[in-house]
Amino acid sequence: MPAPVPVPGREPIPKQVPPTRGTRLRQRLAELRGPAVAAQPLDARALAALAANPGCKRRAILDGAGVNKAALASALGSPSAFGQSQFAFMRGNAFEARVKADGGAELLRLVQEKLDAGAEPPVAGLVPDLAAVGPEGRAARTALALREATAAGAWTLLDHPMLALDVAGSPAFLEPDAVVVHPDGSWTVVEIKSFPMLDGSADAAKVGAAARQAAVYVLALERVADRLTPAPGVRHSVLLVCPKDFSNLPAASAVDVRKQRSVTRRQLDRLTRIEDIAAALPEGTCFAPDLPTPDLTAAVESVPATYAPECLSTCELAFHCRARSRTEGAVTSLGRSLRAELGGLARVDDVLSAARGESGDPTDPAVAALRRAAELRAEALGSRSSDRKGASCP
């Protein structure tokens, strides 16, 4: 077939290129977020919280679309009390700057002392420049710096590198405090926190949260290592650096995150893909905080949520979801462990009805346990009432 003859004075019509799958998803997420709303980056803390509650599609789509959940909660009339104070934020930045001063000499010394005592003590570590345009550019520059540092075989400190991790079909860009490359070519994640380490130990709950966050970084770092030949080793013991006692001096401890890594990886693999959640939403759904409250409430309620009391310390929408869960009488609002023990009884009304013998299968272990508990309670209250009637005043 002969090529079309161009007409003088008329520009050729460019060939339309169909959007790729990734482009369509990004466009859809931008529509959900709002055309004039900037995307909120998905960090490791949010990923760890999402992995701890993989059944919550509401959080998955909001985080995947980059929705500012704090602003959304305020627009819904349930402002969040979750977050870090400005004072704690400034104190943490000042402590991190102290730890990384002089090219990270003290930080590299702590890594060698706690995690690699057999290696040569660091004299002057390398600190490559990781500046690039956009998160994709920074992630590519980080991967290049890791490859060069591994080949160099010298102590190297990567200050705030950028790592990419696929989460439910949507890319998340993560920024750990630091990654150290050892002389043997292995990599270590460093977490710097502002809570104190008293007499060599820190608060167990805070250490656990830091370990879950570091496990996300380890997973993302393993994705980078898998693309190199030979693949370097990513250490599963991370370095946790905190202020020593009540001073501003750094103290460090090695934290094994193998358990947190395996749990987080399994939970992230269970997440429903973001594009599948988005495809099930009604046409025109938008989570822009400047929408009228009724429209915004309807948009949020169109996505199923799985509330649990643990959400109060990890999610900005927890107060809103708790109020809805209590209104619906969901058993999950009393805790995941209780919900698991009650089997098919998902509502508080169903539980009370089964305990009174008005409904439920008597052969169901949960129903039988509830009825036995109700009988014991009635006996206890009856005996107490009898004791009161039998008592006489002197």
| Quaternary | single chain
User: Shape from CA axes?
Assistant: globular
Report the β-strand fraction as a percent range: 5-15%
Rounded Rg:
27 Å
Tell me the helix content. Answer: 40-55%
The description of the largest β-sheet is: 5 strands, mixed
| First and last CA, distance | 117 Å
| Uncertain stretches of 5 or more adjacent residues | none
Count of domain modules: 3
| Average predicted local confidence, pLDDT | 85
Order of helices and strands: HHHHHHHEEEEEHEEHHHHHHH
Strand adjacency order, main sheet: 1-4-5-6-7
SS element count, helices: 15
| Structural class estimated from helices and strands | alpha+beta
Total E-strand runs: 7
Distinctive features:
single chain, 394 residues, alpha+beta, 3 domains, 5-stranded mixed beta sheet, two-stranded antiparallel sheet, 15 helices, 10% strand, Secreted protein
Description of the structure:
The protein has 394 residues and is of the alpha+beta class. Helices cover 47% and strands 10% of the residues. The protein is built from 15 helices and seven strands. The chain has helices spanning 21-33, 44-52, 57-64, 69-75, 86-99, 101-115, 134-152, 204-226, 258-270, 274-279, 293-301, 318-328, 336-341, 348-355, 365-390, and strands at 156-159, 163-167, 170-174, 178-181, 187-192, 237-243, 250-256. Helix 2 (44-52) crosses helix 8, helix 2 (44-52) crosses helix 9 (258-270) and helix 14 (348-355) packs across helix 15. The longest helix is centred in the last third of the chain and has 26 residues, at 365-390. The protein is globular and about 75 Å long.
